[in-house]
Amino acid sequence: MRIKIGSMVKFYTIILLYEGNKHGYELIKKLREKLGRNISSGQIYPFLKVLENNKIIKVEKRGERDKKIYSLTKKGKAFAENMLSRFGDLIDIAIEPKLKVCAHCGCKVYKGGYQEKIGKRYLTFCCKHCADSFKKSKK
Ligand SMILES: [Zn+2]
Minimal CB count within 10 Å: which of 17, 35, 54, 63? Predict the structure, then answer.
């Protein structure tokens, strides 16, 4: 069976377990922090059950109150890494159009960069050195 990650709750559940083993309450608490809204156990436990049935996570009972500790299996870690790399690609696609490109070296400028008016146009460079080299190359 394929596991669909169709919500932020599911996405973060995997991420949080990838960061380390957690018991159910801790997981819900961290999800609330991450997402800034209330998460009910009804949103989490059915998904954890699916993950357990697919051997993505394993559940151990520990402590005097039989708290359940959830952790990723080896298969689960591979699943999480695969998910992260796919989402990484999506994030790249999402920010790509907003990137500026250095007019001299062509590297991508995520934030700020260095701007200089050359001729009649404002050009963006990654740094002042690139702007200087650019001006030299135009002489
Ligand atoms: Zn540059």
Answer: 63
